[in-house]
Design goal:
The complex is a heterodimer of chains A (390) and B (482). Chain A is mainly alpha-helical and 390 residues long. Chain A has one domain. Chain A has 17 helices and four strands. In chain A, the strands form two sheets. In chain A, strands 1-2 form a two-stranded antiparallel sheet. A two-stranded antiparallel ribbon of chain A has the order 3-4. About 3% of the residues of chain A have low confidence. Chain B has two domains: 283 residues; 97 residues, no CATH class. Chain B contains 15 helices and six strands. In chain B, a hairpin with a 4-residue loop joins strand 1 and strand 2. The longest helix of chain B is centred in the N-terminal third of the chain and has 45 residues. Chain B is globular, with a radius of gyration of 25 Å. The N and C termini of chain B lie far apart (64 Å). The mean pLDDT of chain B is 94. The chains are: A mainly alpha (390), B mainly alpha (482).
């Protein structure tokens, strides 16, 4: 029986899955952050840019679809987080705008700003994109300072409208920092860095797999040790913190309260999520370790990528399923967003569930296209003979 | 209050800035996708390598333009949340669906097949490559469909019901939202105007080559295709524009009155070509397809608006009473909900303080409409002249016509921007017609924050636009057809 509750959980799963795919696809950002250090010569830098340049649209599209799916299924999150944590989202968007044009423009005559400026745009996005996304996602566990009063739109349960002076706004940020306050919590930094180093790790694995160039591969193998080590360090620190901290539990009547070890309880209560999480972690570590140990293995991006999708999806489900407030408010506990109080109507979720049946078809043609492009690894020779290159 | 107006003004300015820039790049993407597709089809069907090289050239220009359209589109989507957070909740149940479908259905088609088109010339067979080109273009066009479904819904909200418990409008008919007449008209009108943009762009570039006597075969043969696409799409633009006029008259009469500067309405309403020159009865025909059709003026609509404002205030009062009683007195709450339902279609009018606020900026809408129609007419004339000279099999086009073709490029962009201004400025003060004015839709932010991001995006978009134009010009200048 497909109930309203089921649909809420289903759409939460899809949004978490999109987030997992987004983090995996941020190998594009991770590799771009290394353009000037992994690539020592102009040829090598061109190879990195042309390699990630054939995939950047997937990352971009997944980000857009993540936004659209969140809007359609949990519009109160869209309203509260984007309208409140204004600066975090604006900085993320600005960095992605710079990235989108940098590929096409960097090598073209007449590009005004010069080749290296555009490459630095890629590096900036490569650092700030994953870091800020990670810091924003961390607030699902650490909370954010907002207040929600739905009746405000009709002038009841009135809210004060900051410096604007009014009273109609449903979701308000409780301080003047509008998202920058997330940087005051060190745990948001920790997850930010974990995502950044994960993106770099995946970026190295992707370049090693996609580009047939011995120098890049051997240098990548060495860089992988330090990068993956930092990722594991930040990831374990955040994981330990989340599993031992108090979490935001939701009672059947919608009341939110603090519960010790809530996320650990969620992990233990939901064996299937725990299994996906453990499998994901194992796959990520397998991909990294085998690539470091083996002189010839360059397929690490695949186990590590699949593992990333599983781990991130499971980690996010811990923050939302099993009676948990997924976007907790540190300013007013009862303003916290739950699947129940922030989701779309049953009709919309049901309609969109039908639309979601297209997803396997989409994944199938992506698989076909990806294979067609990557059937032959990228080489210096291809860049000299192909008339469309970045 | 002044600060509130400042916040609304800057939030609108930021959205307008992003949308205006977005609409500089997207029409060329859609238009070139069609023309490239036709050229590559000729290559595959006729096995003529000339068309392969020609398609690749236009594809190169397509690539330069494409990315920045994607980037500005990303910002637009998120700005609904960042700057219009009340809106996002109040209608997110309906409005979010087209955006999500756009991502799942359209953007992944684009993201998958356009890279195949760019990088697949040596990796795919000609037929598969052709399929990738068309599928990439199809993705862009489907994307336009869903975003215009969303836009049409803002202009004419249908298929929903207000729920006072959740304090939002909720979808009750997906078919009404996705397939309403205004969405179909908007899609055809907008996409055909984008094809027109692509066609005029190709005509302009070809004229430049012909004036300099370079790449003449490529220019002449590309121009032939572009002229046919341009004329066909201009006629679709005109036909759907006419249909759009009737729909606006029915659902957004204030927009029509503003576009005509019509203060007092009546039957046999005149169409004003420019102030002081009127053609009797034509506005009635355009708006109602009937010479004796009644077209209300701005003053008539303000008077109607005052009555709607009273009902809107009553709706807000009943809503307030409902909220106060819903947890404590279910019988009273049911009565208030019933009374609210009687006036809920005027809910947005409760936020309007005086009837003057119901009038959009008339000079902008009035002149934008004339610029759009005038420029469209001129462009059609230029395209028809090219067709005439082609038909007469003239060896060379006259220089004045080639110059006209070249200068058609800025003209088609001006027409597109003017059309956008008519549609979006003309519906002010509504973010959703009759349901929500912009002052009730905003996010709670210090206006200084929005001012900073406005100038940040202005700087980024302008720098990137300048770079794009320079890169495009260099690519055209440096091209040597085989």
């Amino acid at each position: 029986m497909i109930t309203y509750t089921f649909l809420q959980h289903y759409w939460c799963f899809l949004v978490c899955l999109l987030a997992g795919l987004l983090v995996f696809l941020m190998f594009v950002q991770g590799a771009n952050s290394l353009i000037f250090s992994l690539g020592r010569t102009e040829d090598e830098r061109q190879l990195i840019i042309n390699s990630t340049g054939r995939k950047w649209e997937y990352t971009f599209t997944t980000l857009v679809t993540f936004g659209g799916a969140f809007f359609a299924s949990f519009p109160l999150f869209y309203s509260t987080s984007f309208g409140g944590a204004y600066w975090v989202w604006m900085l993320i968007l600005a960095s992605f705008v710079l990235q989108a044009v940098a590929y096409e423009y960097q090598s073209k005559p007449g590009n005004t700003l010069g080749r290296d400026t555009y490459r630095w745009f890629l590096v900036i996005n490569g650092f700030f994109g994953p870091f800020l996304v990670g810091a924003a996602v961390a607030t699902f566990y650490t909370g954010a300072a907002f207040l929600v009063s739905k009746g405000a739109i009709g002038g009841v349960e009135a809210a004060s409208l900051g410096d604007a002076g009014g009273g109609l706004v449903i979701s308000r940020w409780a301080n003047a920092w509008h998202g920058l306050d997330a940087l005051a919590n060190p745990w948001n930094w920790v997850l930010g860095f974990a995502v950044f180093f994960l993106a770099r790790t995946l970026g190295i694995l992707y370049v090693m797999n996609n580009v047939e160039e011995d120098n890049l591969r051997s240098r990548g193998s060495v860089r992988l040790i330090g990068t993956a080590g930092l990722f594991v360090l930040f990831f374990l620190a955040f994981l330990f913190h989340v599993l031992t901290k108090e979490g935001f539990a939701v009672a059947a009547d919608g009341t939110v309260s603090m519960e010790p070890y809530k996320y650990l309880h969620n992990l233990l209560d939901m064996w299937y999520v725990a299994a996906a999480f453990v499998l994901g972690v194992v796959l990520v570590l397998y991909g990294i370790i085998r690539t470091i140990i083996s002189k010839t293995y360059v397929g690490g991006i695949w186990p590590a990528g699949i593992g990333t999708v599983l781990t991130v999806t499971a980690l996010l489900l811990l923050a939302a399923w099993n009676g948990t407030a997924y976007y907790p408010s540190t300013a007013d506990l009862q303003s916290s967003l739950t699947l129940q109080n922030s989701c779309s109507s049953e009709f919309t979720l049901r309609t969109m569930a039908w639309v979601s049946l297209i997803i396997p078809f989409v994944l199938a043609y992506i698989f076909f296209a990806w294979r067609a492009i990557d059937k032959k690894k990228l080489t210096k020779e291809e860049l000299t003979t192909d008339d469309h290159k970045y | 209050m002044v600060l509130l107006e400042s916040l609304i003004g800057w939030s609108r300015a930021q959205f307008a800035l992003t949308a205006a820039y977005h609409w500089l790049f997207v029409p060329l993407t859609l238009g070139l996708a069609l023309i490239m597709g036709i050229m590559e089809t000729l290559y595959v069907t006729k096995k003529d390598d000339f068309w392969r090289g020609t398609a690749k050239f236009w594809q190169k220009l397509f690539g330069i333009n494409f990315a920045i359209g994607v980037a500005t589109g990303l910002i637009l989507e998120f700005e609904f949340g960042t700057n219009w957070s009340n809106y996002s909740w109040f209608v997110g149940d309906i409005f979010g669906a087209p955006l999500a479908i756009e991502g799942i259905v359209a953007f992944f088609l684009e993201a998958t097949f356009l890279p195949l088109m760019f990088f697949g010339w040596k990796k795919l067979s000609p037929k598969w490559h052709l399929a990738a080109t068309w599928l990439g273009g199809l993705g862009a066009t489907i994307s336009a469909w869903w975003i215009l479904v969303a836009n049409a819904w803002m202009q004419h909200p249908v298929g929903m019901a207000f729920n006072p418990v959740t304090v939002r409008n909720e979808m009750v008919s997906f078919a009404d939202v996705a397939l309403q007449g205004m969405a179909v008209t908007k899609f055809l009108h907008t996409v055909s105007s984008a094809w027109m943009t692509g066609a005029v762009f190709v005509v302009g570039v070809c004229c430049w080559y012909l004036l300099r006597k370079r790449n003449e075969e490529m220019a002449r043969r590309s121009l032939r295709i572009a002229v046919i696409v341009g004329i066909a799409s201009t006629f679709i633009v005109m036909g759907t524009g006419d249909r759009s006029g009737v729909e606006i008259a029915k659902h957004q009469p204030m927009k029509l009155a503003a576009a005509e500067g019509l203060m007092d309405g009546g039957t046999q309403a005149p169409f004003s070509i420019v102030p002081g020159i009127e053609v009797p009865g034509v506005l009635s025909i355009l708006a109602t397809h009937d010479l004796n059709g009644y077209v209300p003026g701005i003053n008539d609509l303000k008077r109607e608006g005052e009555a709607k404002m009273a009902r809107g205030r009553q709706a807000l009062e009943d809503f307030r009473l409902f909220r106060e009683t819903m947890d404590t007195d279910s019988a009273a709450a049911a009565v208030h909900a019933q009374k609210l339902a009687e006036n809920v279609e005027f809910f947005g009018y409760g936020h309007i303080e005086n009837a003057d606020q119901l009038v959009p900026p008339v000079p902008i809408v009035f002149w934008a409409f004339r610029v759009m129609v005038g420029a469209g007419g001129l462009l059609l004339l230029v395209l028809l002249l090219f067709l005439w000279f082609e038909w007469k099999r003239k060896e060379e086009f006259p220089k004045w016509l080639l110059h006209a073709g070249l200068w058609s490029i800025p003209l088609v962009y001006i027409a597109g921007q003017a059309g956008w201004a008519v549609a979006e400025v003309g519906r002010q003060p509504w973010i959703i017609q009759d349901l929500m004015p912009v002052n009730a839709a905003i996010s709670e932010l210090p206006s200084s924050n929005v001012i900073v991001t406005f100038f940040l995006f202005l700087l980024i978009f302008t720098a990137l636009l300048i770079a794009e134009i320079k890169i495009m010009c260099k690519a055209i200048k440096n091209h040597e057809a085989l």
